[in-house]
Design brief:
69 residues; alpha+beta; two-stranded antiparallel sheet; two-stranded parallel ribbon; 3 helices; NADP-dependent oxidoreductase domain-containing protein; oxidoreductase activity; NAD(P)_OxRdtase_dom_sf; NADP_OxRdtase_dom; Aldo/ket_reductase_CS
């Protein structure tokens, strides 16, 4: 992981959980499983820890499969 990934500012919620303020947006991403897997792997490799999804995007399933590979 790159050193700057650890320096990314986070926001802390009242329950004590925190999330980086910079995330990977997944709106209108590919439906190709192999491409999605590569994008997410590369994002995690460079330090992303916040993957932004929403029910309306209808891509949670492909993202979930990609993350479990």
């Amino acid at each position: 992981m790159f050193a700057y990934a650890a320096m990314t500012p986070s926001v802390e919620f009242v329950n004590g959980m925190s999330i980086p303020i910079i995330g990977l947006g997944t709106y209108d991403m590919t439906d190709d499983q192999s491409v999605m897997s590569r994008v997410l792997t590369d994002a995690i490799d460079v330090g992303y820890r916040h993957i932004d999804t929403a029910y309306i995007y209808q891509n949670e399933e492909i993202i979930g499969r990609s993350l479990t590979q």
